[in-house]
Specification:
The protein has two helices and six strands. By secondary structure, the protein is of the alpha+beta class. β4 (39-41) and β5 (44-48) form a beta hairpin. 22% of the residues are buried. The protein binds iron/sulfur cluster (SF4). Residues 10-16, 33, 63-66, 68-69 line the site of iron/sulfur cluster.
């Protein structure tokens, strides 16, 4: 599965971290979250994850109030 993260939209609410802390972490530097294992491309971050993570990352995406997390179908 693929995860896309629009980091500039992040408001640091922590919901994604609560949903799946194996993949999402808060940054102490700027108060936004970090996509663990993500590679930066322009303003976006991309990560490949195992299918077993799908459910948790979808929960993180649904919880995000600013629609900063996208999961491929
Ligand atoms: S749920 Fe969205 S806004 Fe909140 S910390 Fe995660 S990416 Fe940022």
């Amino acid at each position: 599965m693929k995860i896309t993260f629009y980091r500039d939209r992040c408001i640091g609410c922590n919901y994604c971290v609560e949903a799946w802390p194996e993949r999402w972490q808060m940054s102490k530097r700027d108060g936004k979250c970090v996509l663990i294992g993500g590679k930066k491309k322009g303003k976006l971050y991309h990560a490949e994850a195992g299918e077993f993570e799908r459910e948790y990352n979808e929960r993180a995406a649904q919880a995000c109030p600013v629609d900063a997390i996208r999961i491929n179908k």
